Amino acid sequence: MRVDGKPEGLRQSMAWLHTWSGLLLGWLLYAVFFTGTLSFFVDEVNDWMRPELHASVPRTDTAEKALAAMQRLAPDASSWQIQLPDARHTAVEVMWRLEGAPQGREGMRRAYLDASTGAEIPVRETRGGSFLYRFHFELYAMPRIWGRWIVGVATMVMLIAIISGVITHKKIFKDFFTFRPRKGQRSWLDAHNALAVLALPFHLVITFSGLLLLMTMLMPWGAYAVYDGEPQRFNAERRGMQMAAAPQTGDRSRAQRERAAQQEAQAGATHALAPIAPMLQMAQQQWQGHTVGSIAVQKPHTAHATVELRASGASSLLQGRGAGQRLVFDGISGALKDAPAVRAPSAVMAVMNSMVSVHLGRFADPAVRWLLFLSGVVGTGMAATGMVLWVVKRQPERRKLGHTPLGHRVVEVLNVAAISGLSVAVASYFWANRLVPADALARSSVEIRVFFGVWLACLLHAAWRRHAPAWQEQLALAAVAFMALPLLNVATGGAGLHQTVAHGQWSVAGFDAMMLALGLLHGAAAYRVWRRSKPVVTAAVVLERRAAGAAKPVLQAPKEDA
Q1: Number of C-alpha atoms within 13 angstroms, CB side, residue 265?
Q2: What whole-number distance in Å separates Cα of residue 97 and Cα of residue 341?
Q3: Could you list the pLDDT tens digit for every one of the 562 residues in the chain?
Q4: What is the pTM of this model?
Q5: How far apart, in whole angstroms, are the C-alpha atoms of residue 337 and residue 432?
Q6: How many CB atoms lie under 10 A from the CB of residue 142?
Q7: Is the alpha carbon torsion for 403, 408, 410, 413 positive or negative?
Q8: Which residues, including other chains, have CB under 8 Å from residue 109's CB and lie 6 or more apart?
Q9: β-pair type (77-83, 326-330)
Q10: Is 120 exposed, middle or buried (0-12, 13-18, 19+ CB in 10 A)?
Q11: In this structure, are residues 521 and 377 in contact, taking their beta carbons and an 8 Å threshold?
């Protein structure tokens, strides 16, 4: 790796690889890591960005209210889907499909219901946390496949950077317990090492599992070879391995049942659904430790109606999404028809499911989710300190030259914009959610344009200002913007922390707590930069001048590399 062609050892070559693999895609990786960390709370972000839902407080009879509401909203629908509130959702989300509607998501209609009354809640148009979640693996304003390929390649590079970093630092675990403050480059290296080692297993698992999620796109040749160039068959079989066998609901074929239901509907015959409370009670008794998460009703108001209850989560990390426990009831009599057993996945799918579950945090209760979030913050800090270290390490070279080379200045500007600028942009996205009128046309696009517009403004600001002031101003702005969001929430119709904690609305309370934590973190960083950039009095020069009769202190220029 040396320019002069001289041989070098493994650690030295890995140091070169670690430095440049971390720098060239470091800005993109930081954005992916930061938005991915926020995505551990994607449901909480969605709830907060729809303040109309904050008045919804779950009660014990929420399921009954929701079913009664569906009979008013969609009496002629062929199916109902009801997602009950939980620790991450404060309102009821319902979907239904009308007769003759196309299959898939296009044929579904959606609405939100008040968990206390069952009344429909009109909500503002917003992408919510889904924008940040999608951005972290698809980017934006480009075909999805392009974005996924770019992020996939960057993730491969990150895995290389992590492994080469471990090889490079021979005493990496010993250095974890070493931190020397106010030592310039040495302090940044200590911080980078400490953050890297503190959550090293998390960094490896989250990076590798991210590659697994993109596996069939990045390495499709195995599926093409085994399935004769039809990867759709592979995906269908993979999903089938995770699903339990379909319940047996009678001897007649599906087509016969559908024709009978259509004839019954044309004849105007309707049948009332059985009470849901006994079904919920039976599910609670059978599912120790799991609550009912959703209700699916097929062919409501017909003699062939069925009610399916699904548990709120899988009973094991090894099971995939949608593989939780289920009970199927006769919708008219309320009798239990089937209790499909959860089919055990194959060894390969068990490994895949466990890695994906960790990456997406599917299994996490609130305490574990906060641990994942803090681990993500540590990983984001690792990426940030690595990029800053590149600049600090080259300060002596700049002093010798007497000026800042163009390449160094470009890295400085991109560091400020990618790190502190992204924080300002994310905070601005949340502010736009509350300041853009709720009835504005295409308001979700307006929110996203605010995000990118502010991010671009931060880039221009970093190019215009000197290095240290740019850091200080953007970090301070991000701190104020994040910490003011709970106040903005109350001022714009949302429920404050005192209300959400009292009512157990942990999705909204969790978002406010996350914003306060991010605000404190950015505030501490801004204060640190301000302290290190202040002019300091040189005591030796003061004493010398006082001895010469000059009482005026002499100030030393701030150290920007600290």
Answers
A1: 18
A2: 27
A3: 555 566 667 777 777 787 888 788 889 999 999 999 999 999 999 999 999 999 999 998 999 999 999 999 988 888 999 999 988 899 999 999 887 777 777 778 999 999 999 999 999 999 999 999 999 999 999 999 999 999 999 999 999 988 888 887 766 666 655 656 666 666 666 667 677 777 888 999 999 999 988 988 888 888 888 888 777 777 777 765 443 344 444 444 555 555 555 555 555 557 788 999 999 999 988 887 778 989 999 989 888 899 999 988 665 666 666 667 889 999 999 999 988 877 777 777 788 888 888 888 877 788 888 999 999 998 898 888 888 888 888 877 878 888 888 988 999 999 999 999 999 999 999 999 999 999 999 999 999 999 999 999 999 999 999 988 999 999 999 999 999 999 999 999 999 999 999 988 999 999 999 999 999 999 999 998 887 766 544 454 455 556 665 544 544 445 544 4
A4: 0.85
A5: 49
A6: 12
A7: negative
A8: 74, 95, 96, 97, 98
A9: unpaired
A10: middle
A11: yes
Q: Is the dihedral of CA 531, 533, 539, 545 positive or negative?
A: negative
Q: Please tell me the chain's helix, strand, coil percentages from 3-state DSSP, rounded to the nearest 5.
A: 60, 10, 30
Question: Hey, what are 222's tokens?
Answer: 């195995």
Beta strand spans in 358-509 (E): none
With CA atoms as reference, report the closest residue to 125 among 491, 453, 440.
440
User: Using an 8 Å Cβ cutoff, are 171 and 71 in contact?
Assistant: no
CA distance 184 to 260: 78
> How do 536-537 and 336-338 pair as beta strands?
unpaired
Amino acid at 330: D
Q: Are 519 and 475 in contact (CB under 8 A)?
A: no
Q: Is the dihedral of CA 317, 318, 321, 325 positive or negative?
A: negative
CA distance readout (Å), 157 to 82, 375, 432? 42, 20, 34
* Encoded amino acid at 313, one letter: G
The alpha helices in 169-300, defined as continuous H runs, are 172-175, 185-198, 200-213, 215-218, 221-226, 231-242, 254-267, 277-286
Residue 268, token pair as written in the block: 């105007």
